[in-house]
Amino acid sequence: MKNPVRVGALIASVILFGLFVYLIVVGADKGQYITVAVVFAFAVIATRLDDITNLTFGATGLQAALEKKLKEAQATITQLQGIAELFGQISVQQITLSNRWDGLSSREKREAIERIERELRAIGLTDDRIENILSTQRAYDRFDYYLWVAQVLPAPGPTVKEFAAFTGFQAAFPNASPGAVPTIADVEAYLRTHDIYNGEWLERLNDWKQYERDHTHRRVELWDHRHG
């Protein structure tokens, strides 16, 4: 604290506070210690003059807006959010793209990313920024749902049409990838052209539809064991 005004004000505030307490203890007249209290308040304010951008007087007393410090605090929060956003995005990508059939299980990956999402929401990141962070996971989950549907081969023995349908996915959707996932409507239409209207594929399609709606897994236990 190099500013002489602030140094003097700090010393004055300490003395005035002591006097204020003393007057109350000895039972001084109310007007006396209220006067000291007002002067003490001004002394305290004087120690922060360079931080105060708004000073008003009203029926409830004196109000000082420490806008400078609030702006500095908000800038710090914004910087921390940016750092958290960056590391959150990197973490989600690493978790999602790590060995998809080995290493962390589907449940462990899902729960780790859910924790990242909760913490990002807790520090005030907006929904659109969080969705951008989770975009890699969303893309791979959609692709996995497509593959999950395409891998259904009815048991105990598929019909000729069923066999043709479930072995023809690659030919029907040759460009399928995490960046270009076929739509649910196109997959459903493809199966219906082979007269397939029910069975496990429909259950998995409904699982996929729920994920598209709210990013939750309808049969999470089966989903977590989809690679098994």
Overview of the structural elements:
With 228 residues, the protein is mostly helical. It folds into three domains: 62 residues, no CATH class; 65 residues; 84 residues, no CATH class. It is 66% helix and 4% strand. Strand 1 and strand 2 form a beta hairpin. The longest helix is centred in the middle third of the chain and has 31 residues. The mean pLDDT is 77.
Q: Which sequence of strands runs across the widest sheet?
A: 1-2
Q: Would you count the extended β strands for me?
A: 2
How many separate helices? 11
**Overall mean pLDDT:** 77
Query: Given the C-alpha coordinates, what overall shape results?
Result: elongated
Oligomeric nature of the chains: single chain
Q: What share of residues is helical? A: 55-70%
Structural class: mainly alpha
Order of helices and strands: HHEEHHHHHHHHH
- Low-confidence runs: none
Could you tell me the strand content as a percent range? Answer: under 5%
Q: What is the alpha-carbon Rg in Å?
A: 33 Å
* Number of structural domains: 3
